[in-house]
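Subject: design request, 160 residues
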């Protein structure tokens, strides 16, 4: 069993497979599914330090596209369901988001609330491309900060 895990980790660490793995995990983790992409990003960078910026770019792209999917899910949900429109908490959150506009999507990097925030932006029919742009900025800064912090805390290469 240990040899199989070793082989799988080695295979996923290869640059041609590692970047696609980072993209898929980053994309899926940006949807409303509970999954963290930072360990995958960190792992690939620790195994292939020369791929630091390509990994950050691929993770940002995947996570931003996942956020865009959240926006579309929120937009579609608004078209179909209008059940909780009058609750006080819902109205307060909607007013806050409407006031901030697309720049609120800069907070899409926040754990727990970032991905639903993208869906709510779609629900409110905030402009798609400005929302995606702010998502990309927030997600890029998150990956740079998180990965830099992890590389600083755990210096050196991992060996298998």
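Subject: RE: design request

Done. Sequence follows.
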């Amino acid at each position: 069993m240990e040899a199989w895990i070793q082989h799988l980790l080695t295979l996923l660490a290869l640059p041609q497979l590692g970047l696609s793995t980072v993209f898929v995990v980053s994309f899926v983790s940006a949807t409303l599914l509970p999954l963290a992409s930072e360990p995958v990003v960190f792992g690939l960078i620790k195994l292939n330090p020369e791929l630091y910026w390509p990994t950050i770019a691929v993770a940002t792209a995947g996570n931003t596209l996942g956020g865009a999917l959240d926006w579309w899910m929120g937009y579609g949900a608004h078209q179909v369901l209008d059940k909780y429109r009058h609750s006080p908490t819902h109205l307060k959150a909607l007013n806050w988001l409407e006031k901030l506009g697309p720049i609120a999507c800069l907070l899409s990097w926040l754990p727990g609330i970032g991905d639903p925030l993208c869906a709510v932006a779609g629900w409110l029919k905030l402009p798609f491309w400005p929302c995606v742009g702010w998502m990309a900025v927030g997600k890029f800064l998150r990956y740079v900060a998180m990965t830099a912090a992890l590389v600083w805390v755990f210096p050196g290469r991992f060996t298998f």
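The mean pLDDT is 80.
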